[in-house]
UniProtKB/TrEMBL annotation:
Stated family: Belongs to the FlgA family.
Pfam family, one: ChapFlgA_N
Record-given protein name: Flagella basal body P-ring formation protein FlgA
Domain SAF: 114-176
Gene Ontology cellular component list: periplasmic space
Subcellular location, principal: periplasm
An annotated GO BP: bacterial-type flagellum assembly
Annotated NCBIfam families: flgA_cterm
Organism phylogeny: Bacteria, Pseudomonadati, Pseudomonadota, Gammaproteobacteria, Pseudomonadales
Keywords attached to this entry: Bacterial flagellum biogenesis, Cell projection, Cilium, Flagellum, Periplasm, Signal
Function: Involved in the assembly process of the P-ring formation. It may associate with FlgF on the rod constituting a structure essential for the P-ring assembly or may act as a modulator protein for the P-ring assembly.
Amino acid sequence: MPSHRRALPHLFCARPRGLLALLIALLGHHPVSQAAEQELMEVRVRELLAREAAGPGRQVSVVVHPIAAQLPPCADPQPFLPHPESRLTGRVTVGVRCTGTGTRHLQATVAISAEYPVTRRALVAGEVLNANMIELRHGDLGRLPRHAVLDVEQALGRELTRALPMGSPLPGNALRSVPLVMRGARVKVEARAGSFVVSRDGTALDKGGMGEEVRIRSEGGEVVRARVSGRNLLSVDF
């Protein structure tokens, strides 16, 4: 009997400690509901798309389409763009990395309203675009042709390979570079640092069109790289 009486306190003390540890673990764990996880994932996807699509003068609207299938929980969702080089307009796919449960994909619709360049008059093949041939129009970028140019600077100084009617968006696949600097030509290179400009002469080692980078040999024999900014004119920014 005495031996059993000594064992009882041991048994009744061990079990409460185990139960207490279990209760503490249960009370300390607050699982996030599936609806809350879905909402967090959609918020982060919207933030990513709105950030990537943002730009001066742009109005961006993002709608994330909910997932219809029943999927495992997604802890700490981290969205990413599977094809970051693609234009973010219309229906897009966004990947989401979930801690411990792999990666899933969501669909979203992005609408961007902004200015884009169009032809001010009818243009014929062979014309080299300048600022007087282009004007800006405001509208939904998602309605533009796939290869439409959105930045005027990407079109200036380039030659049209086909005719365009007045008011047409500028197709990037119908523009080609026009050599403004020929290999062996005498050129002027301007080095800019804010409003301070220094120029020097040199010889082009490559040919290039507007905005392209070519090698220049200075009169002192130094070889530098500069960007074409006009006919036999190049610039270097510091």
